[in-house]
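Handout, section 4.2: multi-component inputs.
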Amino acid sequence: MKKNNIIEAATYFFATQGFDGTTTKAISDQAGVTEPLLYYHFTGKDEIYTTILETAFSDYGTALKGLNKETKKAFDKIENLLLLHFDLVKKFPHEMSLVVSPKPSKLNDPENVYDKNNKKHRKWLKSYLTRCLKKGVAAREFKKVPVKETANLIMMVISAILQKKDYQNTQAMRQATVDFWRKNLS
Amino acid sequence: MKKNNIIEAATYFFATQGFDGTTTKAISDQAGVTEPLLYYHFTGKDEIYTTILETAFSDYGTALKGLNKETKKAFDKIENLLLLHFDLVKKFPHEMSLVVSPKPSKLNDPENVYDKNNKKHRKWLKSYLTRCLKKGVAAREFKKVPVKETANLIMMVISAILQKKDYQNTQAMRQATVDFWRKNLS
Amino acid sequence: MKKNNIIEAATYFFATQGFDGTTTKAISDQAGVTEPLLYYHFTGKDEIYTTILETAFSDYGTALKGLNKETKKAFDKIENLLLLHFDLVKKFPHEMSLVVSPKPSKLNDPENVYDKNNKKHRKWLKSYLTRCLKKGVAAREFKKVPVKETANLIMMVISAILQKKDYQNTQAMRQATVDFWRKNLS
Amino acid sequence: MKKNNIIEAATYFFATQGFDGTTTKAISDQAGVTEPLLYYHFTGKDEIYTTILETAFSDYGTALKGLNKETKKAFDKIENLLLLHFDLVKKFPHEMSLVVSPKPSKLNDPENVYDKNNKKHRKWLKSYLTRCLKKGVAAREFKKVPVKETANLIMMVISAILQKKDYQNTQAMRQATVDFWRKNLS
DNA sequence: GATGAATGAGTGTTCATTCAT
DNA sequence: TATGAATGAACACTCATTCAT
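Output:
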């Protein structure tokens, strides 16, 4: 269906040119449809954006929830989290870049799609990391580290990964990133 | 002078709303001048942006070059580099966010102000870090680490720092960041 | 039948929001159908309007022709005419407001439904009134009055009645209007 | 100044084609300017309309207030009121037709320019007429007439006059209208 | 009869920029 | 330096209408 064309085209442009830098004409041209069709399937540019954002956040959330929770070691959880993000950005580069992009100042988002999801995932990540770290420290698997700051630092790295500069997403980088945290924590 | 008002206003808006999300009217209003005055001092919106960008990159470059080069230990150089970025983002939050922001797709930049400076500083950073790491490893100050990937990782963290989320710029975060790299390298 | 729903909905909107202020979507929504169905039953918005107008003019014409012609007194005819209009606007408020509304500038009306009917009824009214007045004057039932101007004035009042402001359509207003003309003429 | 061109052009179109039937392009073409200039002088089509309406109502109000109040006879006041409206519609045909036109359904009028003025002038007229009629009856200048209904009837005629069909605005019509009311009241 | 999907032509509006002074 | 007035090009969006089924 052409609605999917629209979503694909819009996702591409929103991720690469930003919300303000993307025109409805660019989207419709790329999607091979006329502009009015955008307004048949969506109420406007804003809704196209928030729809895409919702999908992106939803995909991201599903991926996070799918993390293997039966791992024995605390570090395995952190390793899996890091590798997951390297995978995600390879699989959904545009969606993931939207997930970490700032809220477009001109976006009218009355249902708070942006803020709600953003907060939710940050909170999830923070609590996931905090739990891992505390458990690892308690079990003497990890050295004593400042939990809050360490979690913050990991989140900064994750954010940088999601912003994907392709050249950073190599096997060697994945390895080095995981090794770095292993060495630091244990 | 009113030109400075314009630059300050524009810097604020470009950093917070993006190039596409910033209108010339917003700039002139905030600067307390009329729109045509922008065109007296600059050739257009593009030039305002590139001018600001040049200053930002120049300030950044000056700061980088000012790094104390007489330190004995390789790690001190890395520590100084990290702390410098924490300081820079506190001092010039808007400029620094522009330094790490992607190139606006609509920006007409025939002199390649953006790309040239961007490449230059990335190169500088990379070579600075590579040299440090190699020297540290050679002098047995550092353990054996994959130089390229480690440099990359540090640059990712630096990039995340410059994007400044205020809450990450605490004394504890600075300490933790430095400590991690120390532990990791030595 | 759904065609009637369409006509009812359109009549309502054309009368209350005007031709230009009425969208085909508003009509189809109100009628509980989809827009393409309008084009199954009519050639387009214009034809919906002219169809409704034809009905309205036809109803109006039928009502006029039904005026009791066997009355003895000339004034009775005028009284009946006035009362008829008070009745009509109560019974068909929307239709009657269309009958006296100006021709929509954007209406494409190649068969001149609007102009033809408008002219026809104005002519009918004028001749009806002129005849009444002349007869009444000749029969000494009426004082000498300027026929043309009196007819005009009555038509102005009739027009104002049809534009119906509900509050003017009371028993007292009907009485007062009739009394006014009785006093004036006799 | 070109702002006046815009107002003149817009007044013409709003009065002859209605608010919904008037495009900003039609206005700017007729005014000999480009469309963006409309938005330099006004915030939008709505404000052009309300500005014109305010002027029209203001002119109308000034004219009403200027009615000679030292006339001895009650009927003179009514005669003057009627003649004033014949004059006004000759002098400001477009403005006056706007004064009695219904509120455009699509007009966004947050300051209630339309309703406020409309109500104000109807109230003024009503109280003016009521006072005249009561005084005239009390002074035995007028026969006993139902005050409220008579006032209503006069207002209906005034409204019809303002809607101006040119052919009704002749010396003979003016005379006939006044004569009828004189005959009716005295 | 009836509809979901789609469109050509506009519609009100914004924006970066220029002109005259 | 500085501005009020003005504009060309584009922008998000709407509308009457059509097509395929």
